[in-house]
Every structure is written in structure tokens, then in C-alpha cells.
Amino acid sequence: MGAHKRPSRLSRAGVVPLSVKSALTLAAVSATVLGPGAVNDAEAATISTKALWIAASKAGSPYVWGGTGPYSFDCSGLTQYSFKRVGKQLPRTAQEQYNRTEHIPSLSREQGDLVFFHGRGGVYHVGIYAGNNLIWHAPKTGSVVRLERIWTRSVSYGRVND
Which InterPro entries has this protein been placed in (predicted)? Predict the structure, then answer.
């Protein structure tokens, strides 16, 4: 295989379905060229970016209402699990996570920020921003953790402070 067709570490491990491999590569794990004395991406990554990578590693895990991992998740269970793995505590529900994060304008959003979906009853869903208007999330019963385009404008963004 040529270097440009080599599977990512996540796909070689069987964690990321091939259908999202290129989107994950472009949106969440963009590579940089390192100069002498530079650190690699993993060392330079923020807590939020590391949480994003953890969420992405759970691609294909089934949605289960109330699921908090490590093998099945609901939306807030996925975000809570991902941030817990990098040493940050988040509350259990999407609304509680919204209340706990620093709210930021959409123009300031970065990979690893939380995306909150709003309805009449408040916040009803949460995912982790992957860039390019995409999120990693656990959508609903019968689905799996996946990368998906943000489908509405009724969202806000929150940052978990490093």
C-alpha cells in the first residue's frame, strides 16, 4: 500500500468504520509537518481535542438510553465519558453539561467544543464538535455513535475549560 492509502491507527484497530475514516482524518485528526524539536499532535493536543479523539474511537458503539460507556452510550454519556478519560468531570445530562460549560459564539468554536441542541424544553442533545460543521454523537435509539453534519441552527457551543 502507498503511504497515501495507509489506514489510520483507528481504522486498523477496527474502531472507525471505513465510511467515516476520511471525514475523521480531515475533520478531527489533521496531521502537521514537524520540525526539529517540535512535539507531535498528541503531545500538543488540548484536553478538548483529546476528548474528541476518544469520542471518535467509539464510532459504531450502540446508542443505549442512559448509556455511559465504555461499550454503549447516549448523547451526554458519550461526552461525559470522553472528557472523563482526559481527566475532566462533566455532569450527566445534556442540560447540566450546558449549564457547566463556558458558552462561546459559533465563530469561536473549535474542535472538541460541545455542541448543544435546543428545543422548547431546553437542551435536548449534545455532541462534540469535529470541525467543518460535523459532530461526533450518539444520536438516538437504534443508531450508533457516528460523525454527522449539524442539522439545525438551533445550537449553541460550550467549552470545557482545560
Answer: NLP_P60_dom, Papain-like_cys_pep_sf, PG_Endopeptidase_C40
**Which of the following is catalytic: 4, 75, 103, 118?**
75
Q: Is 125 labeled as catalytic in the residue annotation?
A: yes
Question: Is the pLDDT at 29 greater than 80, yes or no?
Answer: no
Q: Tell me if residue 103 is catalytic.
A: no
**Cα distances (Å, whole numbers) of residue 101 to 116, 142, 149:** 11, 29, 22
* SS3 state of residue 144: strand
2 is a domain residue = no
pLDDT category of residue 45 using cuts at 50, 70 and 90: confident
Is there a domain that residue 1 lies in?
Answer: no
DSSP codes, 36-75 = TTPPPHHHH--HHHHHHHHHHHTTTPBB-TT-BSSS-B-H
How does the average pLDDT of the chain come out, rounded?
82
Question: Domain containing 20: what range?
Answer: 7-159
What's the CATH number where 21 sits?
A: 3.90.1720.10
